[in-house]
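re the bet — no i am not wrong, look at it urself. input seq straight from the record:
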Amino acid sequence: MLKLNRPICFIDLETTGINLSSDRIIEIAIVKVLPDNTRQVKRKLINPLIPIPAASSAIHGITDDMVKDAPSFKQVGNEIKQYIENCDLGGYNSNRFDIPILMEEFLRAGMEVDLTDRRMIDVQHIFYSMEPRTLSAAYKFYCQKELVNAHSAEADIQATIDVLYAQLARYQNLGDTVDSILGTIGEEKIIDYARRFSYDDRGVEVFNFGKYKGRSVIEVLKSEPQYYDWMMKGDFPLHTKQKLTEMFNRTLLKNH
């Protein structure tokens, strides 16, 4: 069991695809684990307002017809924001997919959601640190069960929490608190959720892609401010552009 100071919301999304900047949420399941380890569930179908590709429907079984009368994310965004308020976050591959896409939807809806004080437990990170496999294999390995209804958002996230609890029982060195788990497996310091920027070993913000990979963002923006314009016009996630703008504004302040 987990010893919690505050609830953790475990999140799983089904989406129109895997592009962080252009794809949309069509189903969200949130299982909130309270400090007494009881669980609350919130699940919603969401109209993405764009067609769902057949290839995606083939994976999760959700079609345009199933979501045509569902609310848009903008209509349910505030409810979701309030549900995860003052909660840490968790999931399976959630740090690199579910949370970035969710934050894109919040930004697209014009909603400010600050996650800077949230701790994030990605069960896949624990799993890959110990026994690299898929969620279905993780469930079988740790829980000795077959994952029924894989790619149903709620089934996947309930299985994810079960895997986490089994991991805590198996790996005693993980401890049983959010702090002890992240202290053991490491906690990634994130600038933007798409990881277009990262920190170097001196804690300086650097580019994590392209011709300037490894170079200081602020130094590049000082010497080549047009690179800012190129990125802002490019196919980058909104959160990446938001963080780029913050750094760009910092270069302007330093130049005055």
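see?? The first helix runs from residue 54 to 60. told u. also The chain is about 45% helix and 15% strand. so pay up
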